[in-house]
Design goal:
Elements (H helix, E strand, L loop, with lengths): L1 H16 L12 E7 L4 E10 L2 E10 L2 H14 L4 H17 L5 H4 L15 H16 L1
Antiparallel strand pairs: 1-2, 2-3
Bound molecules: zinc ion (ZN).
Zinc ion binds next to α2.
């Protein structure tokens, strides 16, 4: 278990330091800003949506390692997903980081590494910032 925990931490540190999809998207279908005043995390999310499917996702911004890692892993996960799947992933991720409850884990994939956040209530907003921003963007 402690090995697994270390591995998880490494993945979070790696994505926090070297976020994937950290770039502006000029031809995005939708963009949305998010801000977490508790920690100062700030981001703008960009999504390219075609026929109810997310074909590309990226973000810009800065914040703590957890918020960056979560946005990085989320944008990787969203590519190729339908809006319906996206909402399922959001629900599963939200439940995981707020309560530690595991549902639809196959949909979450690597995002499971953020489960540990549920033990740190003050960091939950960091982990969910990109997600709340995303769900607001797709519901528009
Ligand atoms: Zn934060």
């Amino acid at each position: 278990m402690s090995d697994l925990r270390e591995l998880y931490q490494e993945l979070i540190i790696d994505h926090g330091r070297h976020p994937r999809n950290l770039k502006r998207m000029d031809d995005a279908s939708v963009s949305k800003e998010g801000f977490n005043p508790l920690c100062g995390d700030r981001l703008t999310l960009f999504l390219k949506i075609d026929n109810d499917k997310i074909i590309d996702a990226s973000f810009e911004g800065n914040g703590c390692a957890i918020s960056m890692a979560s946005a990085s892993l989320m944008t990787e996960c969203l590519k190729g997903k339908t809006i319906t799947e996206t909402q399922k992933i959001f629900d599963a991720f939200h439940l995981l980081v707020t309560t530690g409850t595991e549902i639809n884990m196959q949909l979450l994939g690597k995002l499971a590494v953020l489960k540990g956040v549920c033990e740190y209530p003050s960091r939950v907003k960091c982990a969910t910032l990109a997600w709340h921003t995303m769900i607001e963007a797709v519901e528009k």
